[in-house]
Design goal:
The chain is an all-alpha fold and about 375 residues long. It has one domain: NCX, central ion-binding region (A middle domain of Talin 1), CATH 1.20.1420. The strands form two sheets. A two-stranded antiparallel ribbon has the order 1-4. A hairpin with a 5-residue loop joins β2 and β3. The N and C termini lie far apart (about 50 Å).
């Protein structure tokens, strides 16, 4: 890549977050006109892409698996901000916003991001390899979080309907943070080697770890550029949350006009906030670094539950109305199938394109049933 192209790309990724913040401030009070909404949507997409770039710059500086963790947490910040803002705006779907968005994030990460990464990686490299020990521990943590926060509320008797009582919600929040904290400690300190890219033989069997210093990639960026990217990443995330908030009434009106169930709003929100993860996962899969792609997928699923539910639990102190977390029967069946298929996918530490395709079919099934339950 020439110095000119690098400079142009760098300038573009600097301008877009600043422009997004300017548009957010200028349109906050009045944004009903269609030309303004189109402008907001375009700038929002640009802010998401810029956020991906700056997250990758920071990730390259700190190395794996810290890079994947940073992007997962950054995306979850977007998700939490959107859910809280939408819940404060009221409406008929307020009580299920958190559940629908978190569950949609689970389906998109476990089937969509993981599926497209496996498919792209296997198509390009014939077989893809990853560390089954690290990825398996990530999946087990996601399953435990989903069970505590999304499945059990449908079976408890202290709360009304599919809700937790106040004490149960508090326990679920603490348990979620404990599980997430334990995994982060394992991933970044105790067993970091289980979550870095691996090398493999012609049959896809893992032979070792990728040497970050001799893998042919560019050197990490200087500290000044990394700090600048961190600041621009924060600015881009703030802009994404705010701009998506401005677009949310239009999303809700469109869903209602099309006659779709209100849960589709949560699906749209999840698709929006997980766009940075999806792009980064595909890029890494194309470079035969599926381990990073899976770190992103499972890390995002984990953060989506482990950080969102505790935040919503605290927000319920001042938010009025019920908080429905328990999944519907169809959602529980989809979650169960996804868990079984994911377990079989990662068991051997290598995968063909078929596994990626199977996950994408499950994602398509979820999306179709969301529109036509």
């Amino acid at each position: 890549m020439t110095d000119t192209s690098v400079r142009g790309r760098f300038q573009w990724t600097v301008v877009v977050p600043v422009l997004a913040l300017v548009v957010l401030a200028a349109t906050w009070a009045s944004h009903e006109a269609w030309p303004v909404l189109v402008l907001i949507a375009v700038v929002l997409v640009g802010a998401i892409v810029a956020a991906v770039h700056h997250a990758e710059v920071v990730a390259h500086k700190v190395g794996e698996p810290f890079g994947s963790l940073i992007l997962a947490v950054a995306v979850t910040v977007i998700e939490v901000g959107l859910i809280v803002m939408l819940m404060t705006s009221g409406g008929e779907g307020t009580s299920t916003y958190a559940r629908d968005t978190v569950f949609a994030a689970l389906m998109i990460t476990l089937n969509g991001i993981a599926g497209i990464a496996l498919l792209v990686g296997a198509v390009k490299h014939h077989l893809v390899s990853f560390n089954a020990s690290g990825t398996g521990s990530a999946l087990s943590t996601v399953v435990a979080l989903a069970a505590v926060c999304l499945v059990l509320p449908s079976f408890t008797t202290s709360g009304a309907g599919r809700e937790y009582s106040a004490s149960q919600l508090g326990f679920a929040a603490v348990a979620s943070l404990a599980l997430y904290g334990a995994f982060v400690f394992t991933q970044t300190i105790r067993h970091r080697d289980f979550f870095v890219p691996v090398t493999s033989d012609e049959q896809g069997r893992v032979t070792g770890l990728v040497d970050e210093d001799e893998d042919g990639h560019a050197d990490p960026p200087p500290a000044r550029e990394a700090w600048l990217s961190l600041g621009l990443l924060v600015g881009a995330l703030v802009a994404v949350v705010g701009l998506a908030k401005l677009l949310s009434p239009t999303i809700e009106d469109t869903v209602s006009a099309l006659g779709f169930p209100y849960a589709v709003v949560g699906v749209v929100i999840a698709l929006l906030v997980l766009a940075p993860e999806s792009i980064a996962a595909v890029r890494n899969a194309a470079r035969d670094r599926v381990q990073i792609s899976l770190n992103l997928a499972y890390g995002s699923a984990m953060a989506s539950i482990g950080l969102t539910i505790p935040t919503i639990a605290v927000a319920m102190i001042w938010l009025d109305g019920p908080l429905v977390l328990g999944l519907e029967p169809t959602q529980m069946v989809l979650l169960a199938i996804t868990v079984v298929v994911s377990s079989l996918t990662i068991a051997q530490g290598r995968a063909k394109s078929l596994q990626g395709f199977v996950h994408l079919v499950l994602l398509a099934t979820f999306l179709f049933l969301s529109v036509q339950p």
